[in-house]
Amino acid sequence: MLRVFPSKSRPGKVVIRLNVYHNDMTDRLLEYDFWPRYISCRPWRTRSAREQSPRLRERRKRLENRVYVPRLDSYDKDP
Length: 79
Prior knowledge:
This protein is of the alpha+beta class. The chain has one domain (about 1-65). It has helices at about 45-50, 55-65, and strands at about 1-5, 15-20. Strands 1-2 form a two-stranded antiparallel ribbon.
């Protein structure tokens, strides 16, 4: 089964979910040289697994502590 989702973080890109039955060839799908260079492949993770990711928790923590400071740079006065 193949499902296509628009990317939330990169407009114009898509995320494709490809479900395959487990057999001797499924490991080949994750090998480095199987897909063209512009395609990356990784095992699908459920939403709850993604939310438990240490990297995502760190990112959320940084975003919660972020202070908004407007930029006052003026590019009209560049030398």
